[in-house]
Design a protein that fits this description.
This protein folds into 2 domains: 3-85, Phosphorylase Kinase, domain 1 (2-Layer Sandwich); 91-288, Alpha-Beta Complex (Aminoglycoside 3'-phosphotransferase, Chain: A, domain 2), CATH 3.90.1200.10. Helix content is 50%, strand content 14%. The protein is built from 10 helices and 10 strands. The protein has a 5-stranded antiparallel β-sheet. α5 (130-143) runs antiparallel to α6. It comes from Rhodobacter ferrooxidans. This is Choline/ethanolamine kinase.
């Protein structure tokens, strides 16, 4: 059954259904669908164990995020399909999130997610420890004889140093994929979507991802850390933060390397790998100088 056939077979439609692909997803096929009653977003995608994506977890996180006022409502779910409320909103870009006013809104939303989602979360929950993910991706790349496997010894050595530098952590419920496309603005407020990688984690991972994915300046990072932790960042916090920021960029790099041979979606993963490897190396250099 094709993704469109799966969409049309959902038991929720009233009258004629019109659907069209929605761009942006690189772990799902997304559609905007309209029937005689309402407009919704349909996400078609099964579990992806190689990326540690489990749809039961995405569903639980999506429901809890809506209850926390962070994300749109879940309308329907079944194996391989998640239907959520359509928002008349625009997808943000990295340039949007690099603007101080928008960054402030995004940070408030992320902090709310960290704080409030665990109060609404039901059932089994996953953890997202980036250094485990990095080691697992490296094993997958070796098993597949990836052309990138020659880089792995150095990358794993660097990851080990970063993990030691992060040290003990506070635990929050993280989104863990703060790409600009996962923020929507409806003209009044921001929303956070796509909970594929959600799980308990250090807040530094989301903060580092927010910075690495959106090209924040060091001054913006300092204001972000001060706002989130309600105190100026000292040298120790900066060092731990920069370690996690570099780890976030390394995870995105390895994710893309694995996706080069695993994903069937039409996306230029090779170019994405090169861009993220450059981001990681810049973040690693900043960590080593801190």
């Amino acid at each position: 059954m094709t993704p469109m056939q799966r969409l049309l077979a959902l038991p929720i439609w009233q009258g004629k259904v019109r659907a069209e692909p929605l761009g942006g997803g690189i772990t799902n096929l997304n559609f905007v669908a309209q029937d005689d009653a309402r407009r919704v977003v349909v996400r078609i995608g099964d579990d992806i164990p190689v990326h540690q994506i489990m749809r039961f977890n995405e569903l639980a996180a999506s429901r809890a995020a809506h209850a926390a006022g962070v994300s749109p409502a879940v309308i329907h779910h079944e194996p391989g399909a998640l239907v959520i409320e359509f928002l008349d909103a625009r997808t943000l870009s990295a340039a949007d999130l690099a603007q101080d006013a928008m960054l402030e809104q995004a940070l408030e939303l992320v902090a709310r997610a960290h704080r409030e989602i665990p109060r609404h979360l039901r059932g089994p929950a996953l953890a997202f420890w980036v250094f485990h993910v990095i080691r697992d991706y490296a094993a997958t790349l070796r098993e597949a004889a990836s052309p990138h496997q020659g880089l792995l010894p150095d990358l794993l050595d660097q990851a080990g140093r970063l993990e030691a530098a992060v040290g003990p952590i506070d635990l929050v419920f993280g989104h863990n994929d703060l790409l600009p496309a996962n923020f929507l603005h409806d003209g009044t407020r921001l929303w956070l979507i796509d909970w594929d990688y959600a799980g308990f984690n250090s807040p530094l991972f989301d903060l580092g991802g927010l910075a690495a994915n959106n090209g924040l300046s060091e001054a913006q990072e300092g204001r972000m850390l001060q706002a989130y932790f309600d105190r100026p960042a000292d040298g120790g916090l900066w060092h731990r933060y920069r370690a996690m920021k570099a780890a976030s960029a390394l995870r995105e790099t390895l994710w893309s390397m694995v996706s080069e041979f695993h994903s069937e979606l039409d996306f230029d993963f090779s170019t994405y790998t090169r861009a993220n490897l450059a981001t990681f190396r810049a973040a690693l250099a900043a960590f080593e100088q801190s």
